[in-house]
Amino acid sequence: MTSARRKTPLHTRILIGLLLGAVSGLLAQALLPDGSKNAGLKRLNEDVMQHVGAAFLAMIFMIVVPLLFSALVLGVAEIGEVAKVGRIGVRALILTVVLSGIAVGIGLAGVNLVRPGEVIPSEKRQQLWNGINVEEASKKGAAEKSADVDPAVLGIVPKNPLLEASRALSGGLLPFMFFALVFGLALAGVPEERALPVRSFLEGVFAVCQRVVEMAMWFAPFGVFALVFRTASVLGLSALAAVGAYAALVIVCLAVHMFGTYSLVLKLIGKRNPLEFFRQVRSVIVTAFATSSSNATLPEALRCAQEDVGLPRDTSTFVLTVGATANQNGTALFEGITILFLAQFYGITLDFGQQVTVMGLAIVAGIGTAGVPGGSWPMIAGVIRRFAIPAESIGVVLGVDRILDMCRTTLNVVGDMTIAVCVDALEGGRTELPEVAEG
Ligand code: ASP
Description:
Layout: H1 2-7, H2 10-31, H3 39-61, H4 64-85, H5 87-114, H6 122-128, H7 134-146, H8 161-166, H9 173-189, H10 192-218, H11 220-235, H12 237-268, H13 274-280, H14 282-291, H15 294-307, H16 313-326, H17 329-345, H18 352-368, H19 377-386, H20 393-398, H21 401-426
Helix pairs in contact: 2-11, 3-10, 3-11, 4-5, 4-9, 4-10, 4-18, 4-19, 5-12, 5-16, 5-17, 5-18, 5-21, 6-11, 12-17, 12-21, 14-15, 14-21, 15-16, 15-21, 16-21, 17-18, 17-19, 17-21
The site of aspartic acid (ASP) has 16 residues, from α21.
């Protein structure tokens, strides 16, 4: 019995937590006298559900700083080396940044157009804030930032990275990430024998952090139950409608980027027939979709690139290996939409400048996110606090994450294959595959 329970995959248990939380929350709202304003329900939410949910999230938050630091430094150091490798590296790097930018742009345009988080009626939303005024909360966030004794230059370049690390969850994330980027670039420029101990130490830190996230995820089914119960019992069906619209939007935007942007790039730069390409990489698509992990898909991607797509070994090994961690268009697009959706859900307006910041953060996130299932979440957890979005908002979407993870990982890996094809074509196209279009 116990072993049967243990065998139920985590994402299934989280989904069960989500469904139970949603159904019991909706029932509580529908059946109790006074509905969501029922005194007993309010007490249950404030004294139990909120704390259970917060305890689960705190387990993730506590590891955000070391996780992001190690992941980003290692990711950037890798890219730094890529640049050293010369033309291939620089081309891959430019394509990565441009394609990530387009991906996030599509996501942000979609979320601004559809506005899935605004389905919630505003008086209900106010209840979610436990009586705190939304504007007050946003102002408080801003005040926390401006109260710094020694703020980062332009809000980006930190004078004291340790100070930013200690307030990473309340506005210091961007300057701290900047520090990690600089540190990673510097690491790539240090002689190999000096860099090695630092790199292996950070690899160890990264592995330990991932383990902590895994441990936190054991509690995810309970945390998600509590968070979703509270949301559903306060907001009713409108919460489910919002999350449904959000999930559909993510999938549509991922599809637009995969079949729209990649097709164009494949045709114009890669000189390939996109349909033929998608047919050739179908084993990679299936593996990425099934495992939700770019890293786990890497062996199949390498095989497919050489045997099915006909790419030369050196270019494909190089681009795909680095791309598995450093090129994640699906993740970047997903993170952009999620942050804006959660802001809308809680009634926080992000102006154009803030959205540009989200865009920049999401592009960097695509580089720093680990190619493992749920790799996006520590980054999202850090970023939402910067915009005064409540931490518990994560529970609203975590329940539907698995399916979105399957889809975004597919885009991540197909993106790596696309870049490999383009880099090969720019190198003179050493493949013997058909279809040459005018660039
Ligand atoms: N699962 C994704 C990958 O492995 C990362 C993420 O966005 O969570 O590519």
